[in-house]
Amino acid sequence: MIKEELIDWIKNKEEFFSDMAKDIWNHPQVAYEEEYASNLQKQVLQEAGFDIQENVGGAQTAFVAEYGSGKPVIGILGEFDALPGLSQAVSTNREEIISGGPGHGCGHNLLGTAGVEAVIAMSEAMKTSEINGTIRYYGCPAEEVLSGKTFMARQGVFNDLDCALTWHPGVANFVVNMSMQAMVSVEYQFKGITAHAAGAPHAGRSALDAVELMNVGANYMREHVLDGSRIHYVITNGGLAPNIVPDQASVWYYLRATTKEQVDSMFNRLEKIAQGAALMTETKVEHQVKAYAYNVLPNDTLNKVMLKNMEGVSFSLAVFV
User: Fold this and answer.
1) pLDDT per residue over 15-70, tens digit each?
2) Which three-class secondary structure string do you get for the chain?
3) What pLDDT does 321 receive?
4) Which of 212, 227, 267, 276 has the fewest CB atoms nearer than 10 Å to its CB?
């Protein structure tokens, strides 16, 4: 009976949350800058009776919304960050709203909104049926760069969870009962000596040369990694002008593999390549790890529960039709 009430509540609130998702779509903001979506979700949850914990882990747009008390403690994870360069009107054709601006290419305007809807629906069921327990919505920033939850985890906000659930928009409804790759996001900064590229090139030590040599070495490494591993990068700083030997340059890498141990191995080898590039160019190199995510560890028990309920919900919605 409770599940039928939940479905009824969600159907009745469809227009409200569809408008909310569209509102976030119309106000896209990239990782750690998602103030509009974060504030909107906090407002809706607070009006629904949730207690809000803001600025979690020092990340301004991260928050936790909680309702109820005691066990079990169930979490719903939601994201709301957009991607750079994907500004888009609601259209099947490419129609930038702001040239080069951000946009929701992965459906995070839907992801977080549905999570908010889910926890509010559950809180309503807890009220009417006098169900004990705690339900939380985690407003997680920066999913696109895989580091937002790191700040939240450091503060311990996930420590007492009995389980956590999330979802992601896609082309079909299914339970994800498989792993996904581990990944490290790391940026290398090279420092050299600037000089006039025409008048005194011998006096310079090019940080850009180091970046390019590092990329050559990384590309040779591709032949000697396990199948399915990935190496991709962008040069984030290539210097100021062609006639100036760049004293600073940087490159940003993603390394992906089946397990974190495999990523560790690739990372160690990439570090040697970076040091080699610095030696060849007489420059110095440092690196900054931006994210370091484990491969997903599937939970078969929760997956079976989700599949059973998904099948039940699909049947219930078919009745409405």
Assistant:
1) 999 999 999 999 999 999 999 999 999 999 999 999 999 999 999 999 999 999 99
2) CHHHHHHHHHHHCHHHHHHHHHHHHCCCCCCCCCHHHHHHHHHHHHHCCCEEEECHHHCCCCEEEEEEECCCEEEEEEECCCECCCCCCCCCCCCCCCCCCCECCCCHHHHHHHHHHHHHHHHHHHHHHCCCEEEEEEEECCHHHCCHHHHHHHCCCCCCCCEEECCCCCCCCCCCCCCCCEEEEEEEEEECECEECCCCHHHCECHHHHHHHHHHHHHHHHHHCCCCCEEEEEEEECCCCCCEECCEEEEEEEEEECCHHHHHHHHHHHHHHHHHHHHHHCCEEEEEEEEEECCCCCCHHHHHHHHHHHHHHHHHHHHHC
3) 40
4) 227
Q: Is the separation of the CB atoms in 17 and 113 below 8 Å?
A: yes
Phi, psi values for residue 209, rounded to 5°: -55, -40
The C-alpha atoms of residue 25 and residue 215 are separated, in whole angstroms, by 36
Contact 207, 190 (CB under 8 A): yes
Question: What radius of gyration do the chain's Cα atoms show?
Answer: 24
Nearest to 80 by CA among 19, 122, 39, 120: 39
pTM: 0.84
Residue whose entry in the numeric block shows the structure tokens 């977080």: 112
What is the spatial distance between Cα 28 and Cα 12, in angstroms, rounded to a whole number?
Answer: 27
CB neighbours of residue 229 within 10 Å? 18
So what's the pLDDT on residue 318?
46
- Tracing tokens 């089946």 back to the chain, one arrives at 258
Q: Amino acid identity of 29?
A: Q
CA atoms within 13 A on the CB side of 258: 5
- The more confidently predicted of residues 150 and 73 is 73
